[in-house]
Amino acid sequence: xxxxxxxxxxxxxxxxxxxxxxxxxxxxxxxxxxxxxxxxxxxxxxxxxxxxxxxxxxxxxxxxxxxxxxxxxxxxxxxxxxxxxxxxxxxxxxxxxxxxxxxxxxxxxxxxxxxxxxxxxxxxxxxxxxxxxxxxxxxxxxxxxxxxxxxxxxxxxxxxxxxxxxx
Length: 167
Description:
Rossmann fold
């Protein structure tokens, strides 16, 4: 099963980019094993319940969100996260994504997976597709830089889903 979660808030500028990307994915035909989820918060209820994933069925989770990494606005990044997370010094970008303080979306990814590990199922893979925001202040619509990168984001997300389907 592939669980694709678009995170964001529709009234906070570029923060809505994860929601919009998942809406774009809904235009494609996907097998039943691909689930598209829109969420305003990164909380345990965005993940599949144990009954939704078969005991021997692998689970791949793809999170799409505005991610501030100090890059140029509109930059699309892909980070494959490991669980448990590596030591903080071994892969700074990967470990920072896990342990960063609670974001505007709720739990950190580390907290989310810690809860999931108690109730299962644990994902086989976890991928974070991020877009560097230009503006996350109140207001609808994307900044020009993020709007220009939207087609690239959708293509990266589509290819990531297809890659998981073939593995």
